[in-house]
């Protein structure tokens, strides 16, 4: 069985967010145990499994697994799956492929310039009171705290500035005890001349991901958050300031958010078990 490792939200190898991708030729998923074991073996923030559908709901069924749990929504592994389908000449540019997922039907559109645009549900934001224990774990005092959901189930914290986001060193072992999928920290770009509008980082210790390099799904909450902060703008660029780093172009369309980026295949091999 073929497996690829694809770096998503980047145009060069060894940057962005790597995802494992397994596109099955059978009309059903393998067992939950097997997919979980493969994801643990691959040991990336997510491994995607897809199989073709013939019932008219979508072109493919798609699921995503961290090394520890199955998640309801994942951006970079969806982009990576679209890239694998394009490499296999299933998805041609321009062209769109649809995926049936736990978060509804999602689409990925390939463009002639080599980029992909994902159509995801916008995450609603609910202000919540800061948790003193969480603030101590993070070592930062946020300007605001929001819960995102239902597909993401993260806490989004706005920090004072970009430097605070980049310099954050949270206690990951304590974060692993929180029930939310992850914690997103964000701030406005420090320079008006930057090629991005806001920065973020994502810590998903509770889901088995210490720090995710580039989190597409988090941008379904970052898009409406920063739109409200930046005068109602609907077209923005986010930079996730992890060690690998990556750009996500966001377009807010009401209850849908478009996420755009590129991808590069770095490993193409066979699963032997």
UniProtKB/TrEMBL annotation:
Family: Belongs to the PhzF family.
Name of the protein in its database record: PhzF family phenazine biosynthesis protein
Gene3D superfamilies in the cross-refs: Diaminopimelate Epimerase, Chain A, domain 1
Alphabetically ordered keywords of this record: Isomerase
Keyword Cell cycle: no
The UniProt record lists the keyword Isomerase: yes
Entry-linked Pfam families: PhzC-PhzF
């Amino acid at each position: 069985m073929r497996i690829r490792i694809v770096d998503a939200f980047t145009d060069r190898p060894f940057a962005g967010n790597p995802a494992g991708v397994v596109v099955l030729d059978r009309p059903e998923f393998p067992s939950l145990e097997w997919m979980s074991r493969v994801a643990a073996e691959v040991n990336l923030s997510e491994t995607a499994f897809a199989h073709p559908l013939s019932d008219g709901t979508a072109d493919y069924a798609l699921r995503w697994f961290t090394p520890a749990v199955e998640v309801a929504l994942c951006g970079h592994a969806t982009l990576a799956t679209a890239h694998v389908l394009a490499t296999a000449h299933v998805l041609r540019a321009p062209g769109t492929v649809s995926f049936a997922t736990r978060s509804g039907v999602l689409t990925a559109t390939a463009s002639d310039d080599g980029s992909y645009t994902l159509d995801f549900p916008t995450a609603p934001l609910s202000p919540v009171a800061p948790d003193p224990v969480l603030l101590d774990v993070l070592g930062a005092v946020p300007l605001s705290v929001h819960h995102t959901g239902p597909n993401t189930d993260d806490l989004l914290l706005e920090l004072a500035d970009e430097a605070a986001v980049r310099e954050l060193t949270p206690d990951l072992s304590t974060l692993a005890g929180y029930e939310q999928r992850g914690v997103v920290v964000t701030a406005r770009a420090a320079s008006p001349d930057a090629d991005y509008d806001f920065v973020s980082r994502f810590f998903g210790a509770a889901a088995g991901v210490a720090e995710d390099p580039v989190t597409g799904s988090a941008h379904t909450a970052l898009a409406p958050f920063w739109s409200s902060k930046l005068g109602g703008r609907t077209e923005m660029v986010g930079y996730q300031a992890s060690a690998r780093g990556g750009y996500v172009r966001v377009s807010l369309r009401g209850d849908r958010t478009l996420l755009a980026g590129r991808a590069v295949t770095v490993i193409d091999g066979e699963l032997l078990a």
